[in-house]
Design a protein that fits this description.
Length: 176
């Protein structure tokens, strides 16, 4: 990995901001394939770089039978922020919804999302990106903010790209 220097990150132009972040993440993960180490550095970078983010972390799908897309549950992985809920069933909360739909879910106001799981009372908005490797659901990347409407489509696309870089760099099969 290349040494990480925390700099002021400019997200005035979100697309350009995420492009710079993607370059940094590639440098950070270069030459390392351990999925836990890479997940930890990915969320550390995101949490350090992105403004107005109160929590950033991974939930990994564990314990499911092979080939059963609804088997297993999401279990918290490396994260930055306050201690979090450990287990989330697929289909429950924002994380479980993104996992079940295999689609990024943007929630501008968590109080208006039926079934939202409140880990941190300060959280007002959320975005969850599903992690799909070789057609299989691996887990989700979850970000929270204390500001309503913090995340938009540009964040979703940028975070999907970062999630993809994490998946490509890591030996995901070791997570099972
Ligand atoms: N709010 C999430 C739970 C995880 S925490 O935000 C870290 C949800 O509804 O799935």
């Amino acid at each position: 990995m290349t040494t990480y220097h925390s700099e002021p990150h400019d997200f005035t132009d979100k697309r350009a901001g995420y492009e710079r972040l993607a370059m940094q993440l590639q440098g950070l993960l270069a030459g390392e394939a351990d999925p836990i180490a890479n997940a930890a550095n990915t969320v550390a970078l995101i949490f350090d770089a992105l403004p107005e983010v109160s929590w950033a972390g991974f939930y990994f799908l564990r314990g499911g039978l092979r080939g059963d897309p609804n088997g297993g549950e999401l279990i918290v992985g490396p994260f930055q922020g306050k201690p979090a809920c450990v287990r989330i069933a697929v289909g429950r909360g924002v994380c479980g919804t993104a996992a079940a739909k295999r689609e990024t879910v943007i929630v501008p106001d968590v109080n208006a999302f039926p079934g939202h799981i409140a880990c941190d009372a300060a959280s007002q908005s959320e975005v969850v990106v599903p992690l799909i490797a070789a057609g299989r659901l691996v887990g989700v990347l979850d970000l929270d903010s204390a500001r309503l409407g913090r995340f938009d489509e540009a964040d979703a696309r940028g975070l999907e790209r970062l999630a993809e870089l994490f998946l490509r760099a890591s030996r995901i099969e070791e997570l099972r």
